[in-house]
């Protein structure tokens, strides 16, 4: 397999400035929370060697990130603890400081010869990077390195794509160029002599979580999913060792466990999508299972990044839906609904539908839900709420509250997919209009849905016994 240092298409200068005298090169880590197969980290290491400086990595931790709670923070901090250990082993410094990430980065940039950051696609992430670039005002070299997608988002397309079928050929045109191993750069100057310290201690993650002011309504699920690169790769290897040969056949079979569980690690940047693809290709170079796996990992996922990138103002709202979807849902907004539930009834899994209740219970107790059931779960909220606008909002809010991988380009795009995004008009029905319809009979016909309910019962029993 070919190796690469950093493809130039991943790089973007955020300031027009040369390096300056400084104590270190600074990598402001935010989206790519890993010490392996991280283009931003390797670019920073190369830059540190060129400037004959040690490399310092910083992470700014705010305990009021919108929509995040104890479940999300515990998973993230477990990963950052591994990052700190791995970086120190390479002679790279790591600092975790409390505060708004942009302010933490700016404070440490005062003594930096040059600064590197990974790329973010969401509104707040873009604001942080723009704020730092503006305040540096050309005084410090500042480079963004994009490593959280296989094909850089601006290279794949220059506009918001209509559907997977429109972005697929554009991504495939470039995909193989970027599916390459990433060379690891050994730093020439050890950061051990730096006197820069953080004010947060990752040696005891539960204690650190206890010290933060967090929303604690939703608790951690480390007994099911531990954070970090090692755990993410272990979950993927488990699929590759036992289950990948059934991946295509079982992808829409929620009673099975032939899954990669990659989404949560990808959300926090704990595993590289390039490395995940290469791991699969090394074991299974071709075939239907590989094709389906890469379709989900690259095409479908990067369609969602295209969506949030080119819909910056309102990607997380109902009015980002295509016109045809808003029109048809408005025409059916007053249709009689056989069942209407409050948000609390939904969160408590108190509906008439045992399959939907099982999906909600899986989400609440494990932080995960089989992808096929996510579609059904969302479609029923559309059907069981008073208006499509309200249904859209609470679908997004419940999604972000319980899923480890919530608050993500995938989340925003996939919630709006329920309401017509990246889809086409279908046969017109009450309530749904021309948006895609799903029902319980379809579940019974296409999968062993009672087996799924039994699986969730076992998961919930385990969660309650270990809580």
CATH class category of the largest domain: Alpha Beta
The overall pLDDT, averaged over residues, is 97
Strand residue percentage: 5-15%
Q: Provide the low-confidence segments as ranges.
A: none
How many individual β-strands?
8
What's the name of the CATH homologous superfamily of the largest domain? HUPs
Strands of the widest sheet, in order across it, are: 2-7-6-3-4-5
The rough form would be described as globular
Assigned CATH architecture of the largest domain = 3-Layer(aba) Sandwich
Structural features:
single chain; alpha/beta; Rossmann fold; two-stranded parallel ribbon; 467 residues; DNA Cyclobutane Dipyrimidine Photolyase, subunit A, domain 3; Crypto/Photolyase_FAD-like_sf; Rossmann-like_a/b/a_fold; 8% strand; Crypto/Photolyase_N_sf
Report what the structure shows.
It is a single chain. This protein is α/β, with parallel strands linked by helices. The protein has 2 domains: 1-186 and 203-312, 3-Layer(aba) Sandwich (Rossmann fold), CATH 3.40.50.620; 318-466, Orthogonal Bundle (DNA Cyclobutane Dipyrimidine Photolyase, subunit A, domain 3). The protein has 20 helices and 8 strands. Strand 4, helix 2 and strand 5 form a beta-alpha-beta unit. The chain is globular, with a radius of gyration of 23 Å. The two termini are 45 Å apart. The mean pLDDT is 97.
